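FORM 7B: Structural annotation worksheet

SECTION A. Query
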Amino acid sequence: MYLLETSRLDETRVAIKLTPDWLEARWRAVDVLTVNRKLDEAEKLLPSGEDQGANSWAGFLMRGMCEAANLNWDKAIDQFRRCTLAQPDFAPAHFLLGSALAKVGQYKASRDEFRLYLQGQTRPDLAATAREALAFINERLNDGL
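SECTION B. Predicted structure
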């Protein structure tokens, strides 16, 4: 698990080789790969069959991350929404959905998702980002945009 708690590409690749069927390892690797713009490599890790978790919360999360990295916001929103429905207590999915909704100007829905994120288990850096996003969104909504 240690190898997956890093954002370094080489360690992420080793972790996937050691645990290729572990769904959590795959979604963490997709996260690192998309952040590092290794989109082709990330898409190869997407689950394709039911036995690989294609219709699981993790499968929805991974597809959403790839869609967001490709700036396909509507598809990303759809996948993140499916993830939050399948696993409502998984706070990072609410953060990602809130971010994607803000990208397309759906500020009220985005605000709701960031609030849900902040009610769950958060990381300090993402919690600060969520609070900043909420301040921005509230300002936009108060300005009538």
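SECTION C. Observations
The radius of gyration is 15 Å. The CA atoms of residues 68 and 76 lie 5 Å apart.

SECTION D. Sign-off
Analyst initials: ____
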